[in-house]
Amino acid sequence: MILISHRGNINGRRVPFENQPNHIDTALSAGYDVEIDVWYERESGKLYLGHDTADYQIDIDWLDERSDKLWIHCKNMDSLSYFNKINTFGPEYNYFSHDKDMGVLTSYGYIWSTNLCDNGILVLPEVFDREPMETTIGICSDVIKNYKR
Predict the structure, then answer these.
(1) What is each CA distance from 94 to 44, 68, 107, 122, 128, in whole angstroms?
(2) What pLDDT is attached to residue 91?
(3) Comparing C-alpha atoms, which of 13, 24, 14, 27 is closest to residue 49?
């Protein structure tokens, strides 16, 4: 089972810390993958972390060092285009974009959804009152510690 910390949260929502690089590194150090929210500003060529706004500037090296454990939620069209372009020429990133979709495919071919589905990543089951199915291959949660066996 793939265990994914939602924005760096492990044991409950910590909104003031979500998407902060140190908060993400803490979750990674605890052995979890992490879903992060990424913005790209085409004019400046800068990358940022943040849920509703571009709050914490990062660089591509920061992403490269953690790329095998990150699930990148592209928060604007520029970030989606950016990752689509660099995946063609460089290291592969696992990225996706969604709004109110029932489910989306990540660039690695995983189904990312708040609904139950075979071989999918179940997102925020604690919010949507869902229990993982036997065929669920991953969970993304603010309380991901509860799913560690």
Answers:
(1) 23, 8, 5, 16, 24
(2) 65
(3) 24
